Amino acid sequence: MENKGNVTVNPDGTFDYSLDINTIGFYSIAYSQENSVLLYLEPGSATEIHADGSNMFDSYELQEASDDSKFIKEYFSEYSKFSKNQQQLNSEMKALDFSADRKRKELIEQSEQNRSEFNEYKLAFIDSHAEAPMLAF
């Protein structure tokens, strides 16, 4: 991904940044490598977000954005829930002692259910947004 410049954050945490783009595609606003927001922008489009800079991904709200940027937010919000659930199940499994076969089996079943639900969500998401330009990438 190409770096399009830096911004200065005001003391109150706000910033303004304008970018003229010539190419439709994915763009990221990043506070750090681990703390970013993915957007889908088109030439001539306007995007306005509000976010907590210490946790941009979980806190950002789209005030003005393309439908595709809204779809990305929707998808990754669901992915984040799935991922957190999966991490919790994995942590619980790691904490088990070797004799906890029943609990291990329950956690494996919950993990499989979690994955299955997310896979169903992904397929439904793709079907319901089949005409979205972002899916062409």
Question: Describe it for me?
Answer:
With 137 residues, the chain is α+β, with helices and mostly antiparallel strands. The protein has three helices and four strands, in the order E-E-E-H-E-H-H. A two-stranded antiparallel ribbon has the order 1-2. The protein has a two-stranded antiparallel ribbon with strand order 3-4.
Key attributes of the depicted protein:
single chain, 137 residues, alpha+beta, two-stranded antiparallel sheet, 3 helices, 45% helix, 16% strand
Largest sheet: 2 strands, antiparallel
Secondary-structure element order, N to C: EEEHEHH
- Write out the strand line-up for the largest beta sheet, numbering strands in chain order: 1-2
**Structural class of the secondary elements?**
alpha+beta
Quick structural summary:
This protein has 137 residues and is of the alpha+beta class.
Task: Break the fold down into its secondary structure elements and pairings.
Blueprint: E1 25-32, E2 35-41, E3 48-50, H1 56-59, E4 61-64, H2 67-95, H3 101-128
Antiparallel strand pairs: 1-2, 3-4
